[in-house]
Amino acid sequence: MPISTLPSAREFEEKDHAEVEFVGFRYIGDESTKVDRDVRQRVGYNGPPKFQAGRVYLALLPTYLDANHVENSNIGVHALESRSDFEVIYDPERLAEALLDQNYLPPEAFYEGFDRWKRQKVMEKLDLDDVGRVFEKDDEEPYRNQLRAIAGVETDDEASISTQRSDEYTSRFSRSEASEVVKVLRQDADEIDLRTAGLTDMADYLTRFDPSTVETAVDVVDGDADEADLEISRVDESKDETEGSDEETSSEDGADSEA
Predict the structure, then answer these.
(1) Measured by CB atoms within 10 angstroms of the end CB, which terminus of the chain is less buried, N or C?
(2) pTM
């Protein structure tokens, strides 16, 4: 799906007569498909006026137009915000999800021959590292990995490991045993309701923690360790620490080479 914008949007912004932002929007009304030409006329969207319910449409839309220099200065994203049947998406996380849902990343922002202005808008909004232009589908992966990180989406490898651990806990523990382990690890009752959670739910919950943390919790339940010995470490926290350590090592290596 292309990233739509007014042909004049770039020109107005370059002259400081406009502010344009990379956003998404979706139709959330009662119809399965909405034909609405008003969106084209009042919002600054230059794509087809036909919108499928729930589908995210990407665009560079005016958030400000200088009335002293732009004749139709009343158009812009605010026209969508004022409607109850459309939702405007500004969050980088949700925009990243919308891009990941596409079979191909928008060529005008990522592929060879990209539009520099559109590319800059997307890269800045999502804080993406420039890893070069895309020539074919396989070249998208470095960008998709960044988008997954922004959206908080697991990679296939991470999802596979998580599933393996969940299956292991399901076969290893009974529901009552898993419940006792969860009680030791759970820091917020809202994370999982033990009154309604099944064994699979509890096993999935345990995969949020480092395997060593789970094993220590099991020892606590069995009376082989004191709860004071338990240091709770979550998978996401461990990953962040590893990435931080890698960055520090890289910085030190750079400093050594400069010395």
Answers:
(1) C
(2) 0.61
As given in the structure block, the two tokens for residue 138 are: 């396989």
Number of Cβ atoms within 10 Å of the Cβ of 60: 26
Asked whether the beta carbons of 170 and 203 are under 8 A apart, the reply is yes
Exposed e or buried b per residue across 100-121, where buried means at least 16 C-beta atoms within 10 angstroms of its C-beta? eeeeebbebbbbeebbebbbeb
Q: Tokens for 237?
A: 């926290």
CA angle 196, 198, 202 (to 5 degrees): 105
For 47-104, the pLDDT digits (tens) are: 899 999 989 999 999 999 888 888 877 788 999 999 999 999 999 999 999 999 888 9
Task: Supply φ then ψ for residue 116, to 5 degrees.
Answer: -60, -40
Rounded Cα–Cα distance for residues 100 and 3 (Å): 14
What per-residue confidence (pLDDT) applies to 222? 92
More confident residue, 171 or 238: 171
d(CA 110, CA 139): 10
CA dihedral 146, 147, 148, 150 (to 10 degrees): 90
- Token pair for residue 170? 């399901």
147-158 as b/e: b if 16+ CB within 10 A? bbebbebeeeee
Q: Give the residue among 158, 241, 238, 165 at the shortest CA–CA distance from 207.
A: 165
- 51, β-bridge pairs: 34
Q: What is the pLDDT of residues 91-114, one digit of tens each?
A: 999 999 999 988 899 999 999 999
